[in-house]
Amino acid sequence: MEDFDEFVRARGDALLRYGYVLSGNSEDAADLVQEALARLGDAWTRVRNKHDPEGYVRTTMVRLHIRSWRRRHREDLVAAVPERGEHDRYGDADLWAELQELPRKQRAVLVLRYYEDLPDQEIADILGVSRGTVRSQAARALDKLRIKRVLQEAR
Amino acid sequence: MRTEEELTGALRAAAEHAPDESDLLAGVETLKHQRARRRVRTLAAAAAVVVVAVGGAGLRGALSIGGEGDVATTTTPVPFPEVTRTVTLDSRPEKAVPAAKLWPTAVLTVPTMNAEGMKYEPITGIGVTQVLLLASSLEGTRIEVYDAATKRARVVTTVPMKPTAVPPTVTADGKNVAWMSSGTKRGVSVREIWTAPLSGGKARPVATISGPPADIDALAINGDRIVWSERRGDVWSIPLSGGAAARIPTGRGLRLLRWPWASDAPAGPDSSVRGQSKVVDLTTGSTIKVVTRPGTQGLRCGPFWCFGHDETGALVQRIDGSNLRYLDDRGFWGRPAMAPILNRFVLRGSGIYDIATDRAAAIEGRWTAVAAGHPTIVYWEGGRGTFRVLNLAAVPPAQ
User: Fold this and answer.
1) Contact at CB, B7 and A46, closer than 8 angstroms
2) C-alpha to C-alpha distance for B225 and A76, rounded to whole angstroms
3) The domain containing residue B273 runs over which residues?
4) Number of helices (H) and strands (E), helices first, in chain A?
5) Residue B184's CB: how many other CB atoms inside 10 A?
6) CB-side neighbour CA atoms (13 Å) of B371
7) Dihedral-angle region of residue B233 (phi above 0 means left; psi in -120 to 50 means alpha; beta otherwise)
8) Total structural domains in chain B?
9) Phi/psi of residue B170, each to 5°?
C-alpha cells in the first residue's frame, strides 16, 4: 500500500479542491475525498491496473455527492436533521452562492463540464445518464444562473 | 447575462478555498476500519438468510423459486412475477473450490519480476503454459513471454517510451502484439500505436492519434488489422502494416468489446450503473438487442450472456432476458460493470463464476487483480516473489 499512500499525498490537495467545488463547503469536501479514497484503497490492485486511480476517485466522489444528497434529503424530511456545514462565502460570492442553490445533480454537471472540462459524453458515463440528460441539466442550470449558453452548442 | 468563462473562473477561484490535506490518510484509515466492521455484519446477516433457504427447501444445486419469493435477500425484491428466478447455490463462497483445484491446468505460477529486476504485470495468456507480460523498471519497458513449463522468459520487444509515462495498453493475438502508449504534446493528448511480432522483433510504429480521438478505451488485434474504439464512441481500424486509419461504419458511436463485437456501453470493468442496449457484430452490422428487466443496473453483455445487478444482488442473464441467475454478491470485487469474460466468466464474490458449468472458483490471496484491457486473465499473490495467473482461455470447455 506504499503506492496508495504516495498517491494520496501527491493528489490529495487536487482532490480536495474538486470535492470543494462539488460540495460547496470544507467539511463535506473532506468527507467526500476520504470516503472515495477509502474505497479506492479497497480496490487498489484492480484500479491500479486500469492505470487511472484518480479517475476512479473523482468518479466515486461525484456519485457519492449526488447520492448523499438524496439520503440526507430524506432524513431532513423525516427527522429534521440539520444540513451540516454552512456554505463558505468569500469574495466573488454571488455566483458561488447561487451555485449552492442548484440541485446537486445540476451542480455536479456544471462542475464536471466547467471545472473538470469533460465532454458531455464522459459526464454522461460518469453520472450514468444519457448525454441528452447532461445537456438538459446543464442548460437548466445555466439558465438559472443567468449564464449565456455559447459553449453548449459546440459540445 | 454572465458568461461560461465567469462560471469556470468562479469554480477555479472557489477551489483555492478548499481545506488542506493534512489528515487525509488518517481519515481514510478510520473509514476503512469502520467499513470492515460493517462488512462483517452484513456477511453474518446474509449467511443466516441463505442457511434458512437451504434448510427450508432441502435442495442441492440450483434452486428454482417462483416469482415474488426471493430468498437470498433482505431487501425488497423488484417484482417481475411471470419469470422464474433461480438462486445459484453453487456460487456461494462455501461451495466455491480454489481455482487451482477446479481448473488445475489453467492456473500458472509466474515470477513477479525478471532476472534484471524489472517488475512484471501479466497481460494475457499465450497458449497453455505461456503468459504475456509487461516488464518495467526506471530504465525502460519491455514485453516478454514467460513459459511456466520451462520457467523461462523471452523478450518479445522493447517498448520505446519514456519510463515515467503511464504504462502502455497491450493486446495480442497468436501472431502479433500491439500496444498504445500515451502522452501529451503541447497540452494535447497523443496516443501512439505500435506493433511487434509475438515471436520477437523490433517495435514498429503504426499510428499516431492526437486530440479528442486520442481518448481511446479499447485496443485489439484482428488478424492483419489493429482495431480500437474511442471512449466517446466510434470504432476504428488500421492495417498492421500501417496506412490510413478508418472508422468502421457499423461501429458508429460504439465501443469495442472482443472482436467482432461492439457495445453502446463501455467495455469495462468500470463502476458505472450504466447499462447496455445492444451488441453489434462489426463485420455484418447485425444487432442483438439487450432485454433489461426493470430495476437492473450496469447490465453489460457479450453476444450471449449479460452481467449486472439489481436490488437483490449480482445477476447473469441471457441477452434476451431469459435464464436469470442471482450470484453471490459479497467479496472483494465490488460491482464491476463488464460483460462476461469470453462469454462465460464473471468476477464474483471472492473469485470467478463460470456460467457454462455453474461452478465458482475461489481465489485466495491478499490481493487479486484483473488484467487491463479486455481481460482474459486474473492474477493474485502467489508464494514468495510469484503471481498465480488464472488463464480463463485455458479453462476446459463445459461438458
Assistant:
1) no
2) 58
3) 85-334+358-394
4) 9, 0
5) 11
6) 30
7) left
8) 1
9) -120, 145
Same domain, A98 and A73: no
Q: What is the pLDDT of residues B23-46, one digit of tens each?
A: 677 767 766 665 554 444 333 333
Same domain for A82 and A53? yes
Same domain, A26 and A98: no
Contact A76, A83 (CB under 8 A): yes
With bands split at pLDDT 50, 70 and 90, how would you rate the model's confidence at A62? Answer: confident
Give the Cα separation of B389 and A125 in Å (integer): 31
**A81 and A101, same domain (yes or no):** no
Smallest Cβ distance to A49: which of B20, B270, B370?
Answer: B370
Nearest chain A residue to B36 by CA: give it: A42
Top-confidence range, A65-69, A143-147, B305-309:
B305-309
Interface predicted TM-score (ipTM): 0.78
Residue with cell 462539488: A22
Which residues in chain A are contacts of B270 at CB distance < 8 A? Answer: 125
**First-residue to last-residue Cα distance in chain B:** 69
Q: Which residues of A touch B273 (CB under 8 A)?
A: 128
- What are the grid coordinates assigned to B160, written together? 520505446
